[in-house]
Design goal:
The complex is a heterodimer of chains A (323) and B (292).
Chain A (H helix, E strand, L loop, with lengths): L1 H32 L1 H24 L5 E4 L3 H4 E3 L3 H8 L1 H19 L3 H11 L3 H12 L6 H11 L6 H8 L11 H29 L3 H9 L4 H25 L8 H4 L7 H4 L2 H11 L3 H29 L6
Antiparallel strand pairs in A: 1-2
Helix pairs in contact in A: 4-16, 6-10, 7-10, 10-12, 11-12, 12-16, 15-16
Chain B lengths: L1 H37 L3 H5 L13 H8 L1 H29 L10 H13 L4 H10 L7 H4 L6 H12 L3 H9 L4 H12 L1 H17 L2 H6 L8 H11 L9 H8 L1 H18 L1 H18 L1
Helix pairs in contact in B: 1-15, 3-15, 4-8, 4-11, 4-13, 8-11, 8-16, 9-10, 11-16, 13-15
Classes of the chains: A mainly alpha (323), B mainly alpha (292).
GO biological process, one term (chain A): transmembrane transport
Pfam families (chain A): BPD_transp_1 (PF00528)
Keywords (chain A): Membrane, Transmembrane, Transmembrane helix, Transport
């Protein structure tokens, strides 16, 4: 009796090991069979590990006083000193304020592509619509350096067309680029100029998917054009709008180094500096590595929190969610 | 009643057409003005007489640009980085996106999450700079290519395209005796020409227009790409011709004309390819947006 039990136990043990072995063997043979697939994926995986995840780990220098000679790991820990400095240093407070203000203005112009898409959608002549689309997409392909060149030329106090107009109206010309008062509107308007046309693409795609029968039904019910837009078109692209808005919120504090930096000069910097340009100037140029890493980390964390929060609210309110 | 709504609707149509036309003009006129200035004489530019048509027509600004070795060099650097970089981008993106589109690949969830996470939470600039520096890439053109080898967005666009290739096709090729790499090169890639073109253009345009990576990683003026050179010219009116040649007087007299000529040359490749670019960019943006 006892011996048979032992026997049985042994045999089930053996069964398990045999099953496990065969599973391992299957996995191994699958790995072996498709080894070319794994092999060619190695460079890409290494790329993400080295250039995205190693820097993420290297961000510990935000909690240290980084010393080039001691290296990342042997530099002394200082806790949250640099994060406190971010909120105490008058310079970084000014930059933070600029960043928040510009982000806020960016949110104000966020619906512009939606409105432009609605207007484009109302055009009846297909050829004219294509023509306008081709032109308004174009600024998206120009580099920010070139865009800054264009606008600095247009706003020039001596030869720019805007000041020619102002002089013609009998006022004195204004040095737009040399004043703190104009840099924020310039940054927002140039961004609008560059991105509004391109931003319509996704909305137009969503509009193309609207069932034409809905418009027919609305017409039968006596809806005029405005009512058709409000009751058919707008609800159809609202989900697209809210998803794009969520993505935008996720980039609340980082809206691009280039689009700001190319317009800055010593005369307008006070109101134009944002976190990214400040990180470049103070961190990279003046080697305050730990302090600016803390700023960068702060930025990334705020973005992540906002994204999760906005997603939660959107899910509750409208059922649209990123994940 | 019926008449009045259609009348109002007509008024709206006219306003809409006019509004969109003026919007398009605000996008076109700055470029036209750059062209006009690049062909204009220095006096006319300085007096502010040039708007949308060349005044005192001249080619001297372009002559200057063609004789300035540093502008040529910058142009060449941009060309090398754009062509070489785009090739490396495509190679790296494909060789990661294809395996991760195959159901046979074990552990793809972890890797996909790893890529996705970098889109949501980006590492700060300084630690990234230190990594590039430790690889000895600072002040080499590799710094403009390797640290941005795979864009997560383009990776997902490409992968979603590969996912749509019917797996029966791949099984058939396997039965016919093709190996995994044979399937990739002889079946999948020939089918993927549209997405390769789109992604290649995404990468190419971003290389050509890129300014900040060069600013971060290059200190040697000999390696400056065109955008950095252009930016210097816009900011400093900086011209770099030996002081007693004919061209130094042009540089002195017509800095804006020369700037504008350089802007034209930097924009020309993009404008020439524009119809092609637009088609593929629109397509790529749509694939990307559907997937997300």
């Amino acid at each position: 009796m006892k011996s048979t039990l032992v026997q049985q136990n042994l045999s089930t043990d053996q069964n398990i090991t045999i099953k496990e072995k065969s599973r391992i063997r299957q996995t191994l043979s699958s790995l072996n069979k498709y080894k070319a697939l794994y092999f060619i994926s190695i460079p890409g995986i290494l790329y993400f590990l080295i250039f995205k995840y190693v820097p993420l780990m290297g961000s510990v220098i935000a909690f240290k006083d980084y010393n080039i000679f001691a290296g990342i790991w042997d530099s002394a820990w200082v806790g949250l000193k640099h994060f406190q400095a971010l909120f105490q240093n008058p310079d970084s407070i000014r930059v933070l304020k600029n960043t928040l203000l510009l982000s806020f203005y960016d949110i104000l112009i966020f619906p512009a592509p939606l409105i432009l898409a609605l207007l484009l959608n109302e055009l009846r002549l297909v050829l004219y619509k294509r023509f306008i689309q081709t032109i308004v997409y174009m600024p998206h392909f120009l580099s920010w350096v070139i865009i800054s060149g264009l606008f600095i030329g247009i706003l020039s106090p001596t030869t720019g067309i805007v000041n020619k107009l102002i002089e013609w109206l009998g006022h004195e010309s204004i040095y737009f680029m040399g004043s703190e008062d104009f840099i924020r509107p310039i940054l927002v308007l140039t961004y609008l100029w560059q991105s509004v046309g391109w931003g319509t693409i996704i909305y137009l795609a969503a509009l193309a998917g609207v069932n034409p029968e809905l418009y027919e039904a609305a017409k039968v019910d006596g809806a005029n054009r405005l009512q058709q837009i409000l009751n058919v078109t707008l609800p159809a692209i609202l989900p697209t709008f809210s998803i794009l808005f969520l993505l935008h919120i996720g980039h609340f504090l980082d809206f691009g180094f280039e689009r700001v930096y190319v317009f800055l000069n010593p005369l307008n910097q006070a109101n134009g500096d944002i976190l990214d340009t400040y990180i470049y100037e103070v961190g990279l140029r003046n080697a305050q590595y730990s302090f600016t890493t803390a700023i960068g980390l702060f930025k990334s964390v705020v973005s992540l929190v906002l994204l999760v929060l906005a997603n939660f609210v959107s899910k509750k309110v409208s059922g649209n969610s990123l994940y | 009643m019926k008449y009045s709504t259609s009348f109002r609707s007509k008024i709206f149509d006219i306003c809409n057409v006019l509004f969109l036309a003026s919007l398009a003009l605000t996008m076109l006129l700055p470029l036209i003005s750059v062209f006009a200035k690049s062909f204009s004489g220095s006096n006319a530019i300085a007096k502010g007489e040039v708007f949308f048509w060349p005044v005192e027509f001249t080619l001297i600004n372009y002559e200057y640009v063609f004789h300035d070795a540093s502008i040529w060099r910058a142009f060449l650097v941009s060309l090398v980085v754009t062509v070489g970089g785009t090739f490396i981008n495509l190679l790296a993106t494909t060789s990661l996106a294809y395996p991760l589109s195959r159901p046979e690949y074990k552990g793809k969830k972890i890797i996909l999450f790893m890529v996705l996470f970098t889109m949501i939470f980006s590492a700060p600039l300084i630690p990234s700079y230190l990594v590039v520096k430790n690889f000895g890439m600072v002040d080499t053109l590799w710094a403009l290519i390797i640290p941005s080898m795979i864009s997560a967005f383009n990776f997902f666009v490409m992968r979603s395209f590969f996912l749509n290739i019917p797996s029966t096709l791949i099984d058939a090729a396997r039965i016919d005796g093709l190996g995994e790499l044979g399937i990739l090169f002889r079946i999948v890639l020939p089918l993927s020409k549209p997405v390769l073109a789109t992604i290649g253009i995404f990468y190419g345009v971003s290389h050509w227009n890129s300014y900040q990576t060069a600013l971060y990683y290059l200190n040697d003026p000999k390696l400056y790409p065109l955008q950095v050179k252009l930016r210097q010219m816009i900011v400093n009116d900086e011209m770099s011709v030996e002081s007693n040649s004919v061209y130094s007087t042009i540089a002195l007299n017509s800095p804006e004309g020369i700037q504008m000529a350089t802007v034209v040359i930097a924009t020309l490749p993009i404008l020439l390819l524009y119809p092609f670019l637009q088609k593929h960019f629109v397509k790529g943006t749509m694939i990307g947006s559907i997937k997300e």
